[in-house]
Specification:
The chain is 38% helix and 25% strand. With 196 residues, the protein is of the alpha/beta class. The strands form three sheets. A four-stranded mixed β-sheet has the order 8-7-6-9. Strands 1-2-3 form a three-stranded mixed β-sheet, covered by helices on one side. It is globular.
Length: 196
């Protein structure tokens, strides 16, 4: 009997044309994909890149930032067949853009709204984030921040290179003493290079 990973890719191959053309209205198809991923590990999720019709899409298999599910992601991607219309990726990838903005309800947050200080502890970068208009007990801010961290660094580096994270409301008078969020990318790359 084929492994559960091979069975997943057999299912994906069968529905690949529909998945390629799926949009936000393809709820049942996405639910089926989530169910198939859950057969591998309940911690897995996915993202598709948005590209014009006819171009190669990225199918990103994610552990949703949970390190304990990383082996399941790696094992699944390792046995992925080649697809003409897809790049299969392990973990959410960095987005090569110097300012990304997201909205969640009435919250708008971008790289330009976040600053930081840091320390290095046990080889990891521990960061204090200073966020414009931050509301401490609003989980949407935390979700938005992690989405921006994944976009800036990639899911793998967020989990393996970043240590403790603290967040607080930005005091605009302190901005000149803080590092802009975008510079966390270079800091992370330098820290990785030192460890390797």
């Amino acid at each position: 009997m084929p492994s559960k990973e091979v069975q997943f890719w057999d299912w994906f191959t069968q529905f690949e044309p529909q998945l390629y053309h799926a949009d936000q209205n393809s709820v049942e198809l996405f639910q089926a994909l989530n169910q198939e991923l859950a057969k591998i590990s309940k911690g897995l999720t996915f993202e598709f890149s948005a590209v014009p019709e006819g171009e190669i899409k990225d199918f990103c298999i994610s552990a949703d930032g949970m390190k304990e599910y990383f082996p399941a992601v790696i094992d699944l991607v390792k046995v992925a067949p080649k697809f003409e219309n897809w790049n299969i990726r392990a973990f959410r990838q960095r987005i090569a853009n110097d300012n990304i903005a997201i909205s969640m309800g009435d919250i708008d947050l971008s790289y330009d709204d976040i600053f930081f200080t840091y320390t290095i502890e046990d080889g990891k970068i521990c960061i204090d984030l200073y966020i414009r208009d931050f509301v401490n007990n609003d989980d949407r801010f935390i979700s938005a921040i992690f989405i921006l961290l994944d976009a800036l660094l990639g899911e793998y580096d967020v989990v393996t290179q970043i240590g403790a994270i603290e967040w607080t409301l930005l005091d605009e008078m302190q901005v000149e003493y803080l590092s802009p969020f975008i510079s966390l990318r270079n800091l992370t790359d330098r820290n990785k290079a030192i460890k390797n």
